[in-house]
Amino acid sequence: MSACADISSEVRRKISILFEEERKRQISDYVREKGRASVQELANHFQVSESTVRRDLRDLEEQELLRRTHGGAVAVMPDDNSEPSFVEKEDRFQQQKMDIAREALSLIHEGDSIMLDSGTTTYYLAKLIRNFQRLTVVTNSVMVAQELANEKNIELLLTGGTLRPETLAMVGPFAERAIASVHVDKLFLATNGFDLEAGLTTPNLIEAATKQLMINSANQVILLADHSKFGWVSFSRFGNPEDITTLITDFISPEAVQAFEEAGIVVTLAGQGGAAQ
Q1: pLDDT single digits (tens) 224-264
Q2: Run of H or E including 102
Q3: Residues 230 and 259: beta-carbon distance below 8 Å
Q4: Which of 208, 188, 68, 195 is closest to 139 using CA atoms?
Q5: What is the reported pTM?
């Protein structure tokens, strides 16, 4: 009987391990597919305790399958400092980016002077800028310039500069001189990563310098960032959380919303009823 009991105990232990490993695999797949997820969301989805989820996330982070953040986890890119092409980024989270762009559009008013950074979400915003009678737009984005070229009531200013094929952004000394010579009401800013401690980051030093000048040239800085940008830290820092006036995103945990608001940032959740409560 003792031997049978031992065998039964060993079988149960192996089954338990199999279930645990399968759950971890599914959690990893879930976070990779969604881009990020909160501990509470994972606990509800997999019907386990939050303490179990936290333990699983710790193990998965050690395996470099995801990265833990405050209140949850984000998917891991193959190389934090690599940069996918504009087309590759445009294909990711299209609906979320469009929701963010629609929310951003509501902040643009007749007579405004605005700056549109080069990015896929700012490009979606440019697609929506129509029917204004008087608007000034400054941009370093080839794609934004192309989208707004035929809008007769928009005064469109291009920064010039060296074209980066990866982002289709104009950067470098020519772009920097142009940006430093103007001051706009609102900057709609893009980023590769945003973390409360590391700040705003991007892989390229030259593009980071251009973005930093953009921040300095605006009364209001409105960050357009889908959920996949949070928790990422890239090579070049170009701004601090306190530089951001408003953050428009599609999803972040309530804990993250509170942390950003405590940093003085107005948080708006696109597609979820607007301003975070």
Answers
A1: 999 888 877 888 999 999 999 999 999 888 888 898 999 99
A2: helix 94-105
A3: no
A4: 188
A5: 0.72
